[in-house]
Amino acid sequence: MKSQSVKIERGSGNVFADLGLPAAETHLLKAELVTRIDRIIRQRRLKQVEAAKLLGLSQPDVSRLMRGDFREYSIDRLLRLLTALGRDVEIVIRESDAGRPGRLSVGT
Predict the structure, then answer these.
(1) pLDDT (tens digit, 9 = 90+) per residue, 78-106?
(2) Is the dihedral of CA 66, 40, 96, 94 positive or negative?
(3) CA distance 60 to 64
(4) At 5, is the secondary structure helix, strand, or coil?
């Protein structure tokens, strides 16, 4: 077998930024919110039809969301889906570390 040299590069922690996508921080935040929604649905062992009813979505929309197709969803809409699943959403604004621009994140 012929061995090939593979260059390995450490990621930034945001795959969307690493791929050079615009609005990478927003995409990451939305992905984190969708991950939370998916986790809640799985923990509650809801079928997609049941989740759809709770969320006010169609079953195909839930399926697309769970597969990571969330571009059409705003952050606001994802937050409303979390509240429909019985979660309180709290937004905290604080100063960033000195010399660093602010960032968006999802805490526990």
Answers:
(1) 999 999 999 999 988 888 887 778 777 78
(2) positive
(3) 6
(4) coil
CA 77 to CA 10: how far, in whole Å? 33
Amino acid code (one letter) for 39: R
Q: Cβ(83)–Cβ(40) under 8 Å? A: no
Residue pair 50/41 in contact (Cβ under 8 Å)? The answer is no
CA end-to-end distance (rounded Å), the chain: 48
Q: How far apart are CA 1 and CA 7, in angstroms?
A: 19
- Which of 78-91 are b and which e, b meaning 16 or more Cβ less than 10 Å from the residue's Cβ? beebbeebeeeeee
Give pTM, 2 decimals: 0.82
Residues 6+ apart with CB under 8 A from 26: 75, 104
* Alpha carbon distances (Å) from 49 to 37, 53, 76, 108: 15, 6, 23, 27
